[in-house]
Write a structure and sequence with these properties.
Elements: H1 3-31, H2 37-69, H3 71-82, E1 92-95, E2 103-106, E3 110-114, H4 121-141, H5 148-161, H6 167-174, H7 182-196, H8 204-219
Parallel strand pairs: 1-3
Antiparallel strand pairs: 2-3
Helix pairs in contact: 3-4, 4-5, 5-7, 5-8, 7-8
Membrane topology: Peripheral membrane protein
Function: Has a dual role in the assembly of mitochondrial ATPase.
Subcellular location: Mitochondrion inner membrane
């Protein structure tokens, strides 16, 4: 057995033991039997930490699976490598996010997946694919992220190509899909929200204006795909 395998088995054993100890604390808390007021307060204070541990474990498991088996993620990883970038387990980070977002891309640090916002493998795949489009754009086109037009274009491409605006996602989230321009409307809405968060953007109106100005050319630019993938 290799040292990595030994380390992995040891970590798994520690997690199992930790989970068992938590179960032993949960039973009296739920039943109210044999639990002091002090122990109850300690348990409740530890709940956020425990939830974060569970979210981290789920995120890491999803990351490992998606990087290995997701067709869109594997394709984007290859394309990013071709333009001088690198996406791997080390550059995709799971962490808790205070903001209402699913992920983020930093040219220096890599990709962040918000473990407390991304709860399943499909959402993880969409979020990672979105951020990988940003990584590709940064390497391929030398994006200036403080330039609102650059930012808007990459956001339009990311929402279009990642699959997060596909019909089924919108039906599940919103209960409705406008078949005439449902995809475009979703992409515009998401891109506008992202641009509004740029420090150089002064208003909702400015964000919408910039997105509309670059929308047609950026929406139809499907590189590195031949067409919209999903």
């Amino acid at each position: 057995m290799s040292e990595n395998e030994k380390s992995g088995n040891g970590e798994e054993a520690q997690r199992a033991l930790h989970g068992f100890k938590w179960l032993l604390r949960t039973i009296p808390y739920k039943t109210g039997i044999g639990l002091s007021e002090e122990a109850k307060k300690e348990y409740e204070a530890d709940i956020p930490k425990r939830l974060n541990e569970i979210a981290c474990k789920r995120c890491e498991e999803n990351k490992e699976w998606v990087l290995k088996y997701s067709p869109i993620v594997r394709f984007m990883s290859e394309q990013i490598h071709k333009v001088g970038g690198n996406i791997s387990e080390k550059t995709v980070i799971c962490d808790h996010c205070d903001e209402l977002k699913a992920g983020g891309f930093n040219p220096e640090l890599g990709i962040l997946i918000c473990q407390n916002r991304v709860f399943n493998r499909l959402k993880f795949e969409d979020t990672l694919a979105h951020e990988m489009v940003h990584a590709y754009d940064h390497c391929k086109f030398e994006v200036d992220w403080m330039n609102l037009r650059h930012h808007a274009c990459s956001e339009i491409r990311a929402s279009t190509l990642s699959g997060e605006c596909r019909a089924m996602n919108q039906i599940v989230r919103n209960g409705i899909w406008k078949f005439d321009r449902g995809l475009q409307n979703c992409v515009k809405r998401r891109a506008t929200l992202s641009v509004r968060g740029n420090p150089n953007c002064q208003s909702d109106e400015q964000a919408a204006k910039v997105v509309n100005e670059v929308f047609d050319s950026c929406f139809h630019d499907t590189r590195p795909f031949d067409e919209i993938y999903k």
